[in-house]
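Posting this for the archive.
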Amino acid sequence: MAKQYGKTGNPAQRADMRAKAYAMSLKGMTNGAIGAELGVSRETIRTLLAEYIAEISVPIAEKARAVELDKLDRIEALAWKLLEDQHVAFQHGKVITLDGSPIADTEPVFKAIDRILKTSERRSKYLGLDTPVKTEHTVTTSSVVDASILALVAEMEEKNQEDRELSE
């Protein structure tokens, strides 16, 4: 019986074949040489390699995305803490007061807001929320010439109809 590594073959054999093909490709072998050694076509090797790379890269990308999202969560939590804290204005190492009360410093508040917005934008990029949405647009244009032609065609059809009625 012939080897069957196609999509209808044994999944365990196919996974083993993908790993072998990938290991051989890392050694610099061409798809044709790998296929000859494993008894399959060059196109099958190309498919197996693409499947193997997708299989190993998707979980890695998901883990990396999760790590980055956790970092963003920690950064955002710190920014929110800074936003909610009370900040007093200093000048030359002394607290600035007005009528004996310290004046609030708004600069850290605006910096915290900016950081929260930046982390939110980055999170949106990681989650793919900013990807463009495909839309389909249909544009229909008509000119004066088009309208004139349509009017002439309608007039001709009307005359043809009259001629047919008269000839009957």
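The longest helix spans residues 42-84. The helical segments are 11-26, 31-38, 42-84, 107-127, 144-167.
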